[in-house]
Structures are given as C-alpha cells and as structure tokens.
Design a protein that fits this description.
heterotrimer, A alpha+beta, B mainly alpha, C alpha+beta, A: alpha+beta, FAD/NAD(P)-binding domain, 8-stranded mixed β-sheet, 6-stranded mixed β-sheet, 20 strands, 28% helix, 27% strand, elongated, B: mainly alpha, 72% helix, 0% strand, binds flavin-adenine dinucleotide, binds iron/sulfur cluster
Chain lengths: 392, 130, 243
Amino acid sequence: MSKPHAIIIGAGFTGTATAHDLALRGFDVTVIERGDICHGTSGRTHGLLHSGGRYAVKDQESAIECITENTILRRIVPQVIEPNGGLFIALDESDLAYAEQFIESCEECHIPLEEIKPQEALRREPHINPRVLTAFMIPDGTFDPLRLALAFAGTAKRNGAKFRTYTEVKKLITDGKGNITGVNLLDLKSGKSAELYADIVVNATGAWAGEIVETVGVNVPVKPTPGVMVAFEQRFVQRTVNRLNKPGDGDIVLPQRRMVVVGTTSFEVDSLDYVPVLEDHVKLMIERGAQLIPAIAGAKIRGKYMATRPLIGGGEGRSVARTFKCYDHKEMHNLDGLVTITGGKATTLRAMAEKTADVVCTKLGINAPCVTAETPLLSYRQYYLQPNEDFS
Amino acid sequence: MEKQRNHPSPLKFWLWFNPIGRQAGGWAYILHRITALGLTFYLYLHLIVLGLLAKGPDGYDQFLVLAHSPLFVFGELLVVAAGILHGLNGMRIALTTLGVSVTRQKQLFFGLMAIAAIAILVFGIRMFTV
Amino acid sequence: MSPAKWNIILKIHRQKQGEAPHFEEFPMQVDPDEYVLDAVERVWAFMDRSLCFRHACHHSTCGACGMRVNDVEKLTCITPIREVTRDGATLKVEPLRNFPVVSDLAVDMGTFYSRMETVGARAVLPVSEAEIENPPTTWDADESQYIRLADCIECGLCISACPAAATSTEYLGPAVLAGAQDQGLKRNLKLLELVDSEDGLWRCHSAFECTAVCPSFVDPARRIMDLRMQVIEERFKRLFRKP
Ligand SMILES: Cc1cc2nc3c(=O)[nH]c(=O)nc-3n(C[C@H](O)[C@H](O)[C@H](O)COP(=O)(O)OP(=O)(O)OC[C@H]3O[C@@H](n4cnc5c(N)ncnc54)[C@H](O)[C@@H]3O)c2cc1C
Ligand code: SF4
C-alpha cells in the first residue's frame, strides 16, 4: 500500500510540528501555507518557553503540559532556546499572599521551584525592581519563534514532507456525501488555482481555524484573542521575569538576543488579518514592565507588535483555558476526513502534534507510535536547504 | 528564468556603479572600480600608441604635437588622478585589512580623498603650466 | 493622543511567476510611528491578498522581513515610517538584492542559509562570549552558564547591500564570513580553506556597506577584517612550521 497522504493547512507551530510527527509516522505530508513559515500568530509569539509556573494556580492541566514539554524541547531543540530559567518576583502584599498558593500548586504540578532572598535575586538580576520582597526561580526559558518552527519544518522536510508556501487554501473539497477529500488551492506566486487530494486534511490554522471549516458550513469554538508586546533595546536581564501573581497584563519580561520584550495584553477584535497595535496597550506595557524592571521606563523602544491567540471555547480573555483541542469532525459534525487542531501554546507544540497525529492514525487505522519526544531536531537551516514545492 | 532576475551577474555591471543609498565605503568601492577600469583602458591605449611609435621617427614627431594639445594633457591628468585615487583607495583597503582604522573607515576614506584632491590639484597645475 | 496621520503612497515591487516585474502603487493612510512592515501587512490584509512577503517576529529577532526601502536595506519591522519618508511622499519597497525573488517582496534564502550552515555559524552562544556594550556591573558569579541567541538574525541585509556580492553569486558574503569569524580559526581550523579563497575573505573590498545596514549589531565588516588577520597569522605560522 502506498503511504497515506495528509494535507496540513497552516505552517505555524502547530502545522510544522504536526508535519514533523506525521512524516516520522510514515505519512506523505503536504503543508499548505499562504505566507512563509510563521506568517500567522506563531512568528509573533512573545517567546516564553513556559515552565508552567504562570498557569500552576488556575489551570493545572496547562501547567503540567508546559513543564513536560519544556523539558522535552530543551532536549530536542536546544539550538533555538535561551534556557536560562526565570524569576517570579513579589513586589507587594498581594503578591506575597499569592506565594503560598503558588508554591503549593507548583509542587502539585512537579514544577521545580527554588525560593531565593531579595538580595540574592538582585545579585543575580541587578536590574529588577529593588523593592522585591521575595523571588522564586523556575525553569522558564526563551525561544526564537521563527527558528523553532523552522526546526520542526526543516526536519519534516528532510523526512519527506513537502511545503507549499505562498499558497492559500480557498476551500475544502467534499465528496458529495459530506466527507472531506482535499483542498482547493490558489498559488499566490503565480495566480494559478489547483486541487489537491488527500486521505486526511489537518486544519492547523490557529486563530483562522473557524474560517477554514466555515467553507463547509460548520464551526469550531475558537476565540481569537490578540495581545500586544513591546521590545526594548537593552538586555536588562538574562532570565525571564514574571510578576508573582495571577496572570495579568504586561507581567512578563523576557530577554531575547540584545533586547527585553514585555508582554502582553488580551482583547477582542473584528478583523483577524490585521490587528492594530493599540497605543494605550503600548503605554500599559511600558508602565507594567517598569514595575518589574524600572530601567524600562527610560529605555528605547525597538519594536511594538501584536499577535492573536487561538483560544478555545467560551469565557472571557484570561479566564479561557490555555490547553489545546483536537477536533475530529466526524464526531462533531459527521464530516469525515478532517481534523482541526487549535488552541494551546508554542510551548506545547509537540504535544499538540502528537495528539493530532494520534487522532489521524486512529482514524485511518494506522498503528505507528509517536517518537518525536526522543527525536532531536535537525538544524533549523535545513528548511531553506531544500526547495519548496511548486505547481508545474 | 525569471527567478534569477535579482541575481548578481557581470551582465548587469551597471548596477555595480549605482551610488543611490550607499555610504562612504560604497562610494569608495565604486570609485575603485571606475578608476580600475579607466586604468586598464589606459594601459591598452598606451600599448597601442607605443606600437604606433615603433613605426618610425615620423610617427614620433606627429605624436609629440598631439601630446602637447590641452585635451591630451587633460587625458593624462585623468590617468594620474585615477592612479592616485586607485592607489590611495588600495591603501585604505590594505590598512583596514590589517585592522587599522576599521572603526574609522569613513574618516580614513575622506582623509585619503583629501590627500588625493590636493595631489591631483598639484599635478594639474604643474602639467598645465609646464 | 495619537499623532496626525500621514497620507503616503506605498510603491511596491510586484512580480508573479511568468510575469515581468513592475511597481504597483497603494495610496494609504498611516501613522508615522508605525513600522514599514505594518503598512505592507495592511496592503495584504485590506488591498491585495496576493501580496507575497516574508515576516514573522515583528521585533527584529527572526530576520525575515528584510526589504529595500527607498533604495536602502531595512529590517522593516523596526523601521518607523517617519524615518524613511514624509507626509504626502512615496515610499518604495523592493525585495532584497542578490537573492532570487520568489514573488513580489519575498526572496529565496536557500543559498545563504546553506552557506551559514557550511561555516557552522552558531545559533546560540554563552552570554559571556557575546559582545555586549553595557554589561551589567555585577554579573552572576557563574554568568557563563547563561546562553543567548546569537546576534546575527540571518536577515541577509548585508548581502543585499554588499557591492562585492553584486558581482558574483559565489561570494560567501558578509554574514557568512562574520559567522566564521565568530567561531574563530582557533576553534575551527577547518574554516581556513573555506574563507581563505577567492570567493571568501578576499573578495571583500572594504565597502563597509554590510555594517552600515546590519540591524543587529554584528558589524560584519569589522569581523571580516579580523578574520583576515587570523588567516594571515595562521598562514605565517604554517610558513615557518614547514620543514
Ligand atoms: C500575544 C501572544 C503571546 C504569546 N506568547 C506565548 C508565549 O510566550 N509562549 C507560548 O508558549 N505561547 C505563546 N503564545 C501562544 C502561541 O503563540 C500560539 O498558541 C501559537 O502560535 C499558535 O500556533 P498555530 O500554529 O496554531 O497558529 P498560527 O501560527 O496562526 O498558524 C496558522 C497558520 O495558518 C495559516 N493560514 C490561515 N489561513 C490559511 C489559509 N486559508 N490557507 C493557507 N494558510 C492559512 C496562517 O498564515 C498561519 O501561518 C502567545 C500568543 C499570543 C497571541
Ligand atoms: S550580519 Fe547583520 S545584516 Fe547580515 S544577515 Fe546577519 S544580522 Fe543581517
């Protein structure tokens, strides 16, 4: 029997990781992306390799996912990670009150935690707010968003996956009985249309997941929630710095090359394709960032940008769970041949891919175990070393 | 082959001389190329003229007349100028290669060009007054 | 209070496969403090969905959005519109030079990345090895355990701006030579043959355009000069080591 063919729509974190996983499980994979790799949300991620500390108190499922995946990614893609750990710092009474729950929850989620004295915290990170009352060290990290996706995409490519970039999926093709058999494409480089068929279509379009399935008249409960980030021109810290409290706006500062980046906010939008960077959000980031690292108030801004989270289900902004969901549309809408994977985080990209590939394999009756957790990725540059697919 | 459109090629040599959007070092580079091409051209011209001279004393006398015309002297000045510019620029490249003045390459360039301008002026005055 | 808006004309290089390249003008209203990339992205979002361009991080860490803006190489995500044009003027945006154009503003980074891979340019390095201008006064005792992403974001601006790269496709180019220098011949002697060649170090003619456009503190020109010194030193050593 020839290899089963899977089409993956979207080359963000989720799409590239799923391509890697399916390629390793013996699939013939074609990834369709309307831009280049990371054209959507993934490229503009804040870049925090979560240890789970941020979610430990409110959302333990996410926290456990994070610490597990954090450990795996450090092992399989060290090339794109600044693995320097992170600090949670308390600046006022309410932060101190939160500390108790924080310690307890981190223990429950098996997130390694070390409490350090204010002087010690200031010795390690001289630029943090000198009013720090107490601090905790946790295994956070920072990653380069594009290169993280490239490492997955490049390795997938070496294992035979094909990438068609600058190619937009216009609609899903059905067989008349309501099952998905392929996609209708428009190659933006040439203006030519084409059809491509597959045994399974994986919709990994993140915040745009709803738009894709709408073409066959169904919907998935994705809630696009953008956030603003601001990058400053000096590397004030070597580790990530978090406010020790409930997740809120502008409470994470992380180092990235020679910069620090403060993030984020959370709001709702009408148009997904272009979300403006709101000036008052930028102001808020400077203000909140300066609470953690006072020098930020006077630092030069290098970039202001935003990205749109694909959050799942109901609820408001930060209260929405941060885990991911893989929808088999056979179960949901009696539509075979289509799987949608969305939600989640950059940190959990590999787990999302594993789950998706499991669902796909089960659907097609294929017995192939997931090996991505033990497979080190090749150099991210591999992606550019082999040419992409074109229509001929 | 339209994919290659943006690719470097000696067939698009005029692009090498586009000064738009460049800074001191880029102008130096363009100047270096132009003077190099000029000097190469001159070398061939020189060889041809030498070939003519070898034909006998008549040719030589005719040539002397031509050689004293102001246009010819101007041409010679251009050659001298090209030599000076190319030489000094070459020094700039050699110096930066040896780690000298790497962070001050603009100053080095403008300094050397000032020297070149003075030298060319001096040569010019002497050539036209002799 | 948001500052007054500007009306500009974005003049974008367009080219679809099999078509001749041309410019297309998009009049638009912008905030002068927005970045050039924001304007380009809005063209894609609201005016022409077929526009092809590369971008990812929007804060100068990925190196995907290099373009030529009014004839100068810029990382468009950190180039405020205010710095490159004025109210009522035209803003010309073109793909990088010396790279094959995929379509419109998108170029193919294949050869460049394969050269970066050949010289083994480092992607991450110990913080202690990174040349930071203002290191904190009190480093952690064991600072060297910290790792950070390398300065070079592989944006290719230097190669687009390099006049020597415009004369030959074979020239390794500034970023690649800088990547070799970052390791140093002492650490990786295999680099010697690669960089000490016609299409390596010696094709550079000190135009310093790479350093002028580099958005990421790499200073490739200085690194090329330094690597030349390393090569000269190594060759001298070998001269005397011969029997
Ligand atoms: C502000 C912000 C900060 C964040 N910070 C962090 C963080 O610090 N750490 C962390 O772990 N996570 C973080 N996240 C979460 C993380 O960025 C996202 O969960 C992740 O990027 C989603 O990836 P994705 O691949 O599912 O979606 P995307 O990256 O959006 O990928 C979808 C792709 O599909 C393509 N596409 C859409 N429609 C079509 C079509 N019709 N045809 C072809 N292609 C199409 C798009 O171009 C896009 O490239 C953050 C998110 C936001 C918004
Ligand atoms: S050296 Fe500078 S300009 Fe060249 S690719 Fe690297 S970051 Fe870009």
